[in-house]
Amino acid sequence: MINQLTEYLSYDFVRSALIAGSLAAVLGAIVGYFVVIRRVGFAAHALAHVGFTGATGAALFGISPLNGMLVISVLAGAMMGVFGNRLHRSEIAIGMVLSVCLGVGTLFLTLYSGFAGQASAILFGNIFGVSWHQIIQITILSVASLGVLLLFSRKLLFASIQPDLAEARGVSLSLLSVVFMIILGVSVTLASQVVGILLVFTLIIGPAGIAARLFRGFWSGTAASLVVALAAVWTGIILACATNWPPSFWITGILFVLYLLVEVFSRFVLRLER
Amino acid sequence: MTSALAIADAGVRLGGHEILRAVNAEIAPGEFIGIFGPNGAGKSTLIRAILGLTPICTGTITVFGVPAGRANRLIGYMPQSRVSLEGTALSARSMIAAVAAGDGWGMPWNRRGLREEVDRAMELAGVEEYANRPFAVLSGGERQRVGLAQALLGKPQLLLLDEPLASLDPKNQMLLIERIADIKKTTGTTILFTAHDVNPLLGVMDRVLYIAGGEAAIGSIDDVITSEALSHLYKTDIRAIRVEGNIFIVAAEGGIIEAAHHD
């Protein structure tokens, strides 16, 4: 088994996948913890869908899908941050915007015929196809996002837990919301490089949701979220090598099984549901 | 001696509507003031104006001699909104620790001084016995005391409690009121407490501030909760009826305006 592992690791594309996957997992795990306590899971999902238009439209303008998605997700995130609370109450509007984004994305796919083969890579991820150039970009993006997030994390936790009191203490809720949604836009884009746009939800919400259901402190929760995310991504990539099944399948599968176990445990042992 | 809170001719307009006009009140340090009035009378608006979150269009509000403004460290605030962390195991202690110096930059790591401050606030609010249990499984009364502990962080001189009794049963209402009266006694904190019903607070209030029709009356219970004073505020015929130590406020043509009514 050790021999097998060293053989997989001797391949460049496996090592690249592990590096890119780890970076996306680390950012997703920490951002995801805030997504869970701020209850903006739907926004994460929405950003991924909006990003699809950016990823497919990018080809028309001759830029890479990663850049296209990044620009669109960050812009959409900033807008969601600006409109903030009003968005929660307009599910229909969001649903319509998401659908039209996917629709326009499909149009872009058709218009740029040479690009059609990449559709499944964008939708379901293509972690083994990550280039060194992309790894450098992913590293810069995740380090910058993490840096900003950590700088704001104290205020963000306060504002997530007790927004009215935070506002009274002089914390700008709207600024925090915009900053956080921009970081979420970057995280969603990076996570989509690993598991694809349709499965982004697992990597952002999965590890953090599992950790937040088990751990009672902020630090234990985020640490557990990190461990779960890295374990799922690494195991998923290695199992994909061993089975030739897609890594997206393994990563989502592992996280789903963990989620089920934790759900049962927290319901019947911790009695989290009243 | 400067008053804890001085409100002079304060008026608030929101979206073109006059919510409060010419509110006057002078509150001494260490007083326990109950703030009452019908739904939408402007109780929360007054609280937000004292916090500097809602601007006043006329008059002045000063807190310990300083004009009302945001981020006033002398004020502790327990908002009316209730957070829900359903489905997470985040403990009561974590919820309180997250608020301690929460307006700072960097990561939410609390040094020893802050951890001791969290312990002190938890002890005052009576949270210790369930400090490590998930917030999501706590009862309504226990959750309110977590909010109280959050408000007590940083040793505020003025405590603004916005509807802390909402959605509590009578027993938990009494427990929370006793706890707050104790805090007033041990720390000397000035307390402003908004509520729907005057009765649970009759034994602990020093004075009442009654808001109706955009105006306010402040004074002792016997001066303000009377048929004459309330009729004047509501601009209609109101009766304050005293029965076995309780006060019921009803409109003369029928219909209870304020009794044991809670959302």
List keywords for this structure.
heterodimer; A: 274 residues; mainly alpha; 13 helices; 0% strand; globular; B: 263 residues; alpha/beta; 6-stranded mixed sheet; 4-stranded antiparallel sheet; 13 strands
Mean pLDDT of chain B: 92
Query: How large, in whole angstroms, is the Cα Rg of chain B?
Result: 19 Å
The percentage helix of chain A is: over 70%
Q: How are helices and strands ordered from N to C of chain A?
A: HHHHHHHHHHHHH
Query: What is the oligomeric state here?
Result: heterodimer
What is the approximate shape of chain A?
Answer: globular
- Helix run count of chain A: 13
Structural class by SSE content of chain A: mainly alpha
Question: What is the arithmetic mean of pLDDT of chain A?
Answer: 89
Query: What is the molecular shape of chain B?
Result: globular
Largest sheet of chain A: none
Could you tell me the strand content of chain A as a percent range?
Answer: under 5%
Rounded to the nearest angstrom, the radius of gyration of chain A is: 19 Å
Report the largest inter-chain contact.
A-B, 38 and 40 residues
Helix content of chain B: 25-40%
Most strands sheet of chain B: 6 strands, mixed
Strands of chain B, count: 13
